[in-house]
Design the sequence.
């Protein structure tokens, strides 16, 4: 016969689950955050440099560096799924937090694909405007995902990182409208990854060493 939980026992169970999830997060090395931080920072910097080096229509090839993120995400996602299946401890909160980034990847791919589709339909100056909003939009979505993860795990560096991405999204729009320098968006993105992903990732890694 199954045991029935009263209100206090149910609340205690939920509280323990949250505390357990938070503890396991801190013990995590933060390797994913560090990995993506360095990856995107390097690709954004490469995109910035290529836009300075390439000329004419060749500048379009500068954006091809972002194709690297697709196989990297797939391999990393499958690897994390394999680790999760081997792990004996599973938590619903951890499941939600992890899949926030899956939702981010899907949303980003759909958004970028939509921009290319619309630019093909509307072959005018308007189509060029669609491409320049990609960076600010992705920064905004990244900030939202960091904010959600920061609240779930009560990890303030992620919350601070989300603020950096949101401010940078506005700054990316300004460098285009005020100074008309689209290439600076990628330099801003690279800096964002350093302070929003890489540094919080290393802080998380240090905490994991302290908690072990």
Sequence:
């Amino acid at each position: 016969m199954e045991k029935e939980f009263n209100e206090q026992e149910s609340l205690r169970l939920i509280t323990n689950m949250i505390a357990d999830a938070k503890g396991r997060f801190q013990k995590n090395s933060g390797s994913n955050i560090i990995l993506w931080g360095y990856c995107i920072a390097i690709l954004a910097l490469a995109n910035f440099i290529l836009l300075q080096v390439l000329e004419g229509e060749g500048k379009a090839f500068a954006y091809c560096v972002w194709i690297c993120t697709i196989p990297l995400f797939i391999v990393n996602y499958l690897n994390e799924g394999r680790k999760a299946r081997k792990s004996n401890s599973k938590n619903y909160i951890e499941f939600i937090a992890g899949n926030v980034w899956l939702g981010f990847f899907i949303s980003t791919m759909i958004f970028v694909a939509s921009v290319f589709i619309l630019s093909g339909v509307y072959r005018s100056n308007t189509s060029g405007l669609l491409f320049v909003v990609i960076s600010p939009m992705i920064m905004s979505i990244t900030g939202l995902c960091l904010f959600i993860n920061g609240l779930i795990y009560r990890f303030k560096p992620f919350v601070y990182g989300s603020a950096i991405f949101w401010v940078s999204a506005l700054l990316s729009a300004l460098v285009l409208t005020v100074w008309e320098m689209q290439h600076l968006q990628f330099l801003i993105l690279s800096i964002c990854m350093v302070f929003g992903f890489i540094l919080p990732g290393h802080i998380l890694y240090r905490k994991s060493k302290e908690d072990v």
Summary: Helices lie at 7-27, 31-53, 69-86, 92-121, 125-132, 134-153, 156-177, 184-211. The radius of gyration is 20 Å.
